[in-house]
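// run 5 | inverse folding | seed 20
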């Protein structure tokens, strides 16, 4: 997304990304609403099918079937589309749909963003004096670290309420191109901040929850005809698919051809999108800039029409990333296509809407030249208008009519943003229970480092304008006398000149908080990292401050991707380490709440923190997840990488201790086979036991078998706290080239000090024990699987047996 934005960055502005994002990239103050003219702001437009609106246009609404709310949506959208000429139709296929005043159809801007709050990146939404800001929740990677599904959904609900309120005021659209659900395959990826991490199942669960939070109208979650299910706002899972290189060593996303094995497509790259569509019932999917195995994703009929619309049964529209079709012609030079060839190709592949002007400018010619049928356009327009009908664009939505200014930046939403950061923050080290600090004992605080006064950095990218901001020094000054020294001129920390004053502050203060890390000058859209270390002299700053500090030293890292901080992990002068992602508008407050024990941290790393030399072992451009011995590739993500790490996926400490007791579980699954069940081969390692019937294709099974896992989590420490219980499955020993383990479920549970809570899971055996073989078949293997409960050491076997 945001090619324009990216270009701005590439021209060399290395200032905080947010300042670019807030600088509008498209003309501002053009209302996204259905204006019949170009009235800038403060619309009194409520919905299309309003008789008085038609009166003003000199039209009689009653003759327009598309406004007859007694008819089903498919009949109404057909009437609407059939009224348009070809020239009128193509003007509705870009993100700015021009409308057709002749038939009462207003214009509409499809492009709005709400990755972690209502954003003004995208011309459909803007802020001004009437609505100066919206709640800026932490960027997704931190919220993901909470492993709290209800939090993810609740944030979606808060964001969509603010979006609806802003829509009512003519400041926002109804269609939001969020969330980003690409898996973080490589720790260098610049857009890690936008995503829920490296595990495809966790990413898919995040997607399903956030999308339901954004889209679901209370009481209308389940519908028999999903094409008429009402939407609060429309959400979009992007960027489909295998998009995870931005710009690495001169390879950029506009030229990148992702060579992905079908095995990895099924197991990793497509899985979150499949969950987003099937579990989240998302109303849009966005195709990406890159090619997959030679074909630009937006031109791939197999990926779009066959998989998303056909197999997964999308109810909604497919949109391109901004200027994807142009990228296809100019950068990929795909099949030497002309502009007309390209628009014809993408329309036929199933791409309904072009974020850009290619459809608008070139589709009419493509039809005249015989390259695409008018009915291909009609099909796309119908997909688009059904979504707008479900949103109440045509008929209004009484349920949300009363929302307004007072529903944006409410105290409740600002508190939720703070809570998200508190729940996400990960405690990485806490020697001798140094944390939490007791403010009575630490009257003076040295708060040092390049992020000690972080403000907009905490908002990350795709942010809007926040309601307010609380920096770390703001928050810590409520607990003691703050001695603030930056220690570096900027995140790049190009020289040592400012280290001495920071050391002096530490020397004379009762405790020292160092806030260091990365920002968008290091990891950003359009910018991947080359290394996993802290930039410039930050390491020296941290070590030198720690050496001379009078009191305990606490290191806080702000970053999206993992950083090799082995030096700090082993430095006995650094007592505690926290990872705070980019913590959003109230980030400073959340950090201080954790440091002082007003919140007991329970977040877990949603991705592996690799050692610095990891990236020397494999190019970012290799998509293979499994180790490749011949090439010395070590494997990617916790599922396939078996080497040493700085901190593993799922890592995180607490101020209390938890014990797990396995309360019950089913230990074996017997599947009765009939003569139509054929055993599938699997590759085993040399000498491993090979069952007579190694596996069955899960499509051939009823898949009704479940196993339950009931765990008692005891808080055996002295503080209340929340524990994230992560359940993994591990395939039978001996199966070659499969994952080491994989997440199959997780729950965050609050347990009072001294108390215990039961946590129950029910797993479908096919879904939770399957492996994907080299030929991309999803198989249930026979033999002894292992269920592993977090890193508690608790595990138990499950036997899968096939009986004839
Ligand atoms: C909006 O309100 C103004 C003033 O009340 C009125 O003149 C105008 O016609 C209205 N426009 C629409 C589209 O209803
Ligand atoms: C998960 O999030 C919900 C919604 O914000 C919150 O009420 C709940 O306390 C959280 N659960 C835990 C265990 O922290
Ligand atoms: C929809 O219905 C199913 C089955 O009745 C239920 O499991 C599910 O939770 C419902 N979904 C929502 C979002 O309420
Ligand atoms: C799109 O998918 C549908 C149903 O899956 C199929 O009937 C149709 O032929 C496909 N169209 C193209 C162009 O692949
Ligand atoms: C598309 O058409 C508009 C209006 O004619 C024109 O200004 C613009 O340059 C065209 N863009 C492209 C990429 O062809
Ligand atoms: C914890 O404190 C004890 C006693 O003060 C000390 O001997 C020990 O080295 C400390 N451990 C760490 C990891 O700092
Ligand atoms: C902290 O940053 C803000 C925003 O950049 C700035 O206005 C303020 O002066 C800074 N505070 C200090 C103490 O430097
Ligand atoms: C050292 O860094 C500071 C802060 O970025 C800068 O102002 C100063 O000019 C640099 N000094 C040298 C000698 O490069
Ligand atoms: C690592 O990357 C950062 C940011 O791109 C750069 O500033 C730094 O110099 C690099 N460090 C090393 C050791 O190459
Ligand atoms: C084992 O894997 C290789 C590909 O790596 C394949 O050629 C071979 O057929 C596989 N054997 C079985 C039994 O699946
Ligand atoms: C991981 O590495 C350890 C130690 O080298 C080895 O014992 C183990 O078998 C490996 N596990 C896998 C799944 O490769
Ligand atoms: C977990 O399951 C057990 C037994 O099946 C049941 O007694 C208990 O109430 C369940 N607990 C929760 C929290 O659902």
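// decoded
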């Amino acid at each position: 997304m945001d090619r324009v934005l990216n270009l701005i960055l590439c021209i060399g502005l290395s200032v905080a990304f947010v300042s670019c994002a807030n600088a509008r990239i498209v003309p501002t103050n053009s209302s996204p609403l259905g204006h019949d003219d170009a009235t800038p702001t403060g619309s009194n437009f409520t919905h299309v099918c309003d008789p008085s609106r038609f009166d003003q246009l000199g039209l009689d609404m009653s003759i327009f079937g598309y406004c007859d709310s007694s008819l089903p949506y498919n009949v109404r959208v057909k009437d609407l589309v059939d009224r348009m000429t070809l020239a009128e139709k193509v003007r509705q296929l870009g993100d700015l749909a021009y409308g057709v005043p002749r038939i009462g159809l207003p214009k509409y801007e499809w492009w709005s963003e709400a990755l972690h709050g209502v954003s003004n990146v995208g011309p459909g939404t803007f802020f001004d004096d009437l609505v100066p800001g919206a709640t800026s929740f932490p960027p997704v990677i931190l919220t993901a670290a909470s492993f709290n599904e209800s939090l993810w959904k609740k944030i979606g609900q808060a964001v969509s309420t603010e979006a609806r309120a802003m829509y009512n005021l003519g400041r926002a659209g109804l269609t939001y191109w969020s969330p980003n659900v690409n898996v973080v395959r490589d720790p260098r990826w610049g857009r890690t901040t936008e995503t829920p991490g490296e595990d495809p199942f966790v990413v898919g669960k995040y997607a399903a929850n956030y999308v339901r939070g954004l889209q679901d109208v209370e009481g209308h979650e389940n519908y028999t005809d999903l094409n008429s299910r009402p939407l609060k706002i429309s959400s979009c899972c992007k960027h489909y698919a295998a998009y995870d290189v931005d710009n690495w060593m001169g390879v950029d996303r506009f030229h990148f051809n992702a060579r992905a094995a079908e095995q990895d497509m099924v197991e990793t790259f497509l899985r979150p999108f499949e969950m987003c569509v099937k579990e989240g019932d998302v109303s849009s999917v966005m195709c990406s800039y890159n090619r997959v195995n030679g074909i630009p994703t937006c031109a791939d009929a197999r990926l779009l029409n066959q998989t998303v619309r056909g197999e997964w049964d999308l109810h909604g529209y497919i949109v391109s990333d901004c200027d994807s079709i142009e990228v296809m012609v100019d950068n990929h030079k795909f099949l030497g296509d002309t502009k007309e060839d390209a628009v014809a190709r993408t329309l036929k592949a199933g791409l309904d809407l072009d974020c850009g002007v290619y459809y608008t400018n070139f589709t009419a010619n493509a039809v005249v030249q015989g390259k695409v049928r008018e009915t291909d356009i009609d099909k796309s327009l119908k997909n688009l208008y059904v979504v707008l009908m479900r949103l109440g664009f045509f008929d209004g939505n009484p349920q949300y009519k009363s929302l307004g200014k007072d529903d944006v930046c409410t105290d409740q939403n600002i508190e939720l943003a703070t809570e998200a950061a508190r729940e996400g923050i990960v405690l990485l080290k806490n020697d001798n229970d140094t944390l939490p600090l007791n403010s009575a004992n630490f009257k003076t605080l040295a708060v040092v480092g390049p992020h000690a006064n972080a403000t907009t950095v905490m908002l990350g990218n795709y942010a809007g304008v926040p309601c307010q901001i609380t920096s770390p020094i703001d928050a810590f000054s409520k607990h003691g006398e703050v001695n603030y020294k930056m220690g570096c001129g900027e995140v790049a920390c190009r020289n040592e000149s400012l280290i001495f004053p920071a050391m002096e502050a530490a020397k004379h203060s009762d405790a020292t908080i160092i806030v260091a890390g990365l920002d968008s000058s290091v990891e950003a859209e359009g910018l991947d990292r080359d290394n996993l270390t802290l930039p410039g002299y930050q390491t020296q700053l941290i070590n030198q401050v720690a050496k001379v500090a009078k009191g305990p030293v606490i290191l806080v890292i702000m970053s999206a991707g993992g950083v090799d901080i082995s030096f700090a992990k082993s430095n006995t002068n650094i007592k505690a380490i926290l990872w705070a992602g980019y913590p959003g508008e109230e980030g400073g407050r959340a950090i201080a709440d954790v440091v002082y024990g007003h919140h007991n941290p329970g977040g877990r790393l949603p991705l592996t923190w690799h050692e610095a030399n990891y990236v020397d072992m494999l190019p970012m451009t290799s998509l293979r997840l499994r180790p490749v011995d011949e090439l010395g590739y070590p494997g990617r993500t916790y599922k396939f990488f078996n080497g040493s790490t700085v901190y593993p996926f799922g890592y995180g400490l607490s101020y209390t201790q938890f014990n797990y007791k396995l309360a019950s579980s089913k230990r074996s699954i017997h599947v009765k086979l009939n003569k139509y069940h054929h055993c599938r081969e699997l590759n085993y390692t040399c000498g491993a036991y090979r069952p007579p019937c190694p596996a069955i294709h899960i499509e051939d099974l009823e898949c009704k078998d479940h196993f339950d896992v009931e765990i008692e989590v005891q808080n055996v420490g002295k503080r209340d706290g929340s524990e994230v219980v992560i359940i993994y499955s591990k395939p039978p020993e001996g199966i070659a080239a499969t994952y080491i383990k994989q997440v199959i479920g997780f729950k965050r549970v609050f347990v009072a000090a001294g108390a215990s809570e039961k946590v129950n899971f029910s797993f479908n055996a096919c879904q939770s024990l399957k492996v994907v073989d080299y030929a991309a078949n999803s198989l249930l293997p026979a033999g002894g699987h292992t269920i592993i409960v977090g890193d508690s050491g608790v595990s138990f076997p499950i036997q899968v047996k096939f009986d004839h």
